[in-house]
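C-alpha cells for DNA-binding NtrC family response regulator. Go.
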Amino acid sequence: MTSRATPILLVEDTPSLARVYAEFLKKESDGVVTVETGAAALEQLADGVPRIVLLDLQLPDMHGMEVLKRITAQALPCAVIIITAHGSVGVAVEAMRYGAYDFLVKPFSADRLTITVRNAIERLRLAQIVETFGKDLARSRYHGFIGSSLSMQAVYRIIDSAASSRATVFITGESGTGKEVCAEAIHRQSPRAERPFVAINCGAIPKDLMESEIFGHMKGSFTGALADREGAAARADGGTLFLDEICELAPDLQTKLLRFIQTGTFTPVGGSKLEKVDLRIICATNRDPLREVEEGRFREDLYYRLHVIPIHLPALREREDDVLEIARHFLADYAREEGKGFNRFSAEAEQALRAYHWPGNVRQVQNVVRNIVVLHDGDTVTPAMLPAPLGAPPANGHGAAHAHAHSPPAHSPPAQPPLAQPPSPKAIKPLWEVERDAIEEAVAACDGNIPRAAALLEISASTIYRKRLAWQAEGKI
C-alpha cells in the first residue's frame, strides 16, 4: 500500500477544524474521510481496511478513548493519532497504553500534522509486512541477537522490513537490552552494509566536545584543536550513523542535528564550508522519549523527525526462556576463552536463572556467566556457583571475616533472633497459580484489555496470550 493510497479517517466534530485538517492532508492521501461522531467512526472502520485514524477525544456521543479501546480490542489494522485540545502527560500515556500511535495537542501546524501522518503510514506499512510474514519459522540467532521468544521474532521481522528503507529508526529499551546490536543488525541487513557503521554515545562525551565529535572541527577552532578532524557524520558517509542515548544531547546541538537531518549538510566547528553527506541515522535511548518531549528536555520537532520507525526492545524478563539460550551461549564462549570445562547448567541453576528478574538485562547475564566461569571449574554450573543476588551469599572468606569483625564481644551472650514459623504447606501456592491469579486479576481490572494489562504488569501482551492459551489447554482456567 503506497502513501497516497492509504486512506485517512478524520474524526473531528468541529466543522471548521475538520476542513482545515482535511486540506492539510490532501497531499498525503487520496482518500480522506471526515466524520463527527464516534459511532460514525466505528461504522467506517468496520470494513477492516488498513487506515490512519486522526481521533479527537471530545466527541458528541462518546469519548474518543472509548473509540480507541474498541479499535484495540477488535485488533483493527489502524494507526491511531490522537488530536485534542486537552493534552497532558497522563492522557498521552493512557492513549499510548491503549495502542495509539501518536498524540497531537491542538493547535498544531500543518508541518507537524503531515510529518506525523507520514510516519504513521510508514509504520502501518511495516506492520502489514510483519503480519504477512508472521508465520515464518522462528529464529534463535539474528545478527548478534540470541533468543527465539515471540517478542524477539517480532523485533527480527521489523528489522527485516525496515532495513531496506532510508527512514530514520528510533530504538527504545532498558539499559542492556541490545540497542546497539539492533542498530548494527539494521545496518548489516541494509543496502549500506558494505559502508561504514559509526556509533556515538551521546551520554559519554562532554557536551562541549559533542558538536566536534559529530561534525568535526578545523585546526585552531578551539584550544587543543591542533589539526583538522573529521567528525562521525563525514566518516559515516554512504553508511549509517548511530546516535546512542540521543536524549542526552544538549538543546543547542539538538537544533543543529535537526538542521542536519533536514538538509543532509553541516559545517565543521570553526569551518565556513558547507559539507554534504548521504547517510542513514539510527538513534536510541533508554528513556521515555515522549516524556522527555513533554517535560521540555527534547525538541518536539526533532523527535518527530527521528521517530519514523520505532523499535522497542523488550526487557529480558519479558522474553520467556531466552535467558537460558543467552546464558548457554556465553557459558560456551567464556569456558573456551578461560580454558574451563563448563558445558551445561544444572536443572536447579536453570530454574534460578528463569526466576530472577534481570534488571540489567543481557549485559547482566554476560557478567554473571563470566563471574561463574572465572571463579569456578567443572562441567556443570550448580546453584552454589551463582553469584549474589541469584545464589546464596558467601558463607566464608571475606563475607565471613566481615561478619566476624562485627560479632558481639566474647563475654556478651549472642542475641537470639526470634525463630520464624515456617509457613503452612496449605498457605503456599504453586508459582504458576500465583502468576495466573496476578494476570487474570490485571485483565479483569482492565475490562479485558490485554495490552493495557500487559503494560501495567510490565510484560508483553504476547506473554499473556501465550500463557492463557496454555492454561486453557491444561484446564487451569
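The domain at 8-116 is CATH 3.40.50.2300 (Rossmann fold).
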